[in-house]
């Protein structure tokens, strides 16, 4: 019976941590929404240059290494990879702010859990 209670408590605590993290991401999203709306479109347009550069490099390398009829897949893959990498790099500040908010919410839940399992008697 003790194992079942421990498992249920651990599961409940894990769910509380996940929900706190999600709530923190939502709070961070609200805090950065003004910045995010203006920035995301502009940063995506800037990342298109990286996609074009990655596709161009793949096109040239495929011309040297691979036959002509097999160029499309590597060009698209390198272009998409370069776009994703550049976009993730450019949006790192927005994502870090959201992660800070999530971390604060998770710390609150962890502190409440610790205080519930280690009550402090002042008497």
Please provide a brief summary of the model:
The protein has 123 residues and is mainly alpha-helical. It has four helices and no strands.
Describe the structure.
The structure is a single chain. This protein is mainly alpha-helical. 88% of the residues lie in helices and 0% in strands. It is built from 4 helices and no strands. It has helices at residues 2-31, 33-65, 72-90, 92-117. Helix 1 (2-31) packs across helix 2 (33-65) and helix 1 runs antiparallel to helix 4. The longest helix is centred in the middle third of the chain and has 33 residues, at 33-65. The two termini are 33 Å apart.
Q: Which properties best describe this structure?
A:
88% helix, 0% strand, mainly alpha, 123 residues
Q: Give a short account of the largest sheet.
A: none
Which blocks of ≥5 consecutive residues have pLDDT under 50? Answer: none
Helix content range: over 70%
- Gap between N and C termini, in Å? 33 Å
Indicate the structural class: mainly alpha
By DSSP (H or I, 4+ residues per run), the number of helices equals: 4
Radius of gyration, CA atoms, in whole angstroms: 24 Å
Overall form: elongated
Q: What is the mean pLDDT?
A: 82
Return the string of H and E elements.
Answer: HHHH
State the total count of DSSP E strands.
0
Strand content: under 5%
What is the topology?
Elements: H1 2-31, H2 33-65, H3 72-90, H4 92-117
Helix pairs in contact: 1-2, 1-4, 2-3
